Amino acid sequence: MNPLVAPEGSAHGRSGTALSVNLNKVALLRNTRRLGIPSVTRAAEFVLQAGADGITVHPRPDERHIRHSDVLELAALLKRDWPQVEYNIEGNPLHNLMDVVREVRPHQATFVPDSVGQFTSDHGWNLPTDAKALRPLIAECHALGVRVSLFMDPQPGAMAHVRELGADRIELYTESYASAFGTAAEAAVRSRFAATAQAALALGLGVNAGHDLNRDNLSAFLREVSGVSEVSIGHALIADALELGYTATIHDYLRCIREADVKA
Which residues are catalytic? Predict the structure, then answer.
């Protein structure tokens, strides 16, 4: 196994729920000029100093935000200064992700079924249709000591296929929850996520969650969807940091996680 794999759970958040910060939007802003600012590695240092549990990046083939050099620099930073912190690298294993995994061997690889030029992730894997392509890549990650999480829509019946493939976790694609938050549909949508998480946990799978989670909707999600090991948050968190600063922003997201536990 990867000697840097962090133990399950979080020292800062709700028991079993870690906060992983996606730094793609920092890189996107940096890439609009050739000045090297804002620094992706400095952003990582700021959020980790403030108490975040992990770092997530999603390097796409066109490098429109996170670049290959960023992936390597973050890996070196974490290995040197933050060996307890989880490094999660997302992407499509049928495109560029596996080359990155082989080189870096992160703690976790999150397989996402994005097309090459896709604006942002917008759906999970279609199982069992995609199983044949994913099976050998999951096995290769395990041989490299890397945990595998599959990006999935809230479909309880699909969890048995995830387990059969040998993946370790799912990441619940939460955009539909975020869109329904505060509407009459919220409770019904959230219940589908809760049912999916329970189905996954019953099969021995870990549960992560991410996409459009923010300070308004995070606590309610975690109160209803029990057993979430990790939330990966990027766009909203970086937007908040532009107004509040990294430290205050991380502290408030950690508050949301703690609040979900207190009010559960």
Answer: 58, 90, 211
Contacts of 31 (CB under 8 A, 6+ apart): 64, 65, 67
> The pTM is what?
0.90
**Number of other residues whose CB lies within 10 A of the CB of residue 8:** 11
Sign of CA dihedral 141, 147, 150, 156: positive
Q: For tokens 């019946």, what's the residue?
A: 157
| Neighbouring C-beta atoms of residue 67, cutoff 10 Å | 17
**The amino acid at 161:** H
Q: pLDDT 10s digit of each residue in the chain, 264 long?
A: 233 333 333 444 445 699 999 999 999 999 999 999 999 999 999 999 999 999 999 999 999 999 999 999 999 999 999 999 999 999 999 999 999 999 999 999 999 997 666 656 657 899 999 999 999 999 999 999 999 999 999 999 999 999 999 999 999 999 999 999 999 999 999 999 999 999 999 999 999 999 999 999 999 999 999 999 999 999 999 999 999 999 999 999 999 999 997 654
Residue 212, C-beta contacts closer than 8 angstroms, at least 6 positions apart: 174, 175, 177, 178, 179, 235, 236
Name the residue type at position 145.
Answer: G
| Fold that domain 18-262 belongs to in CATH | TIM Barrel (3.20.20)
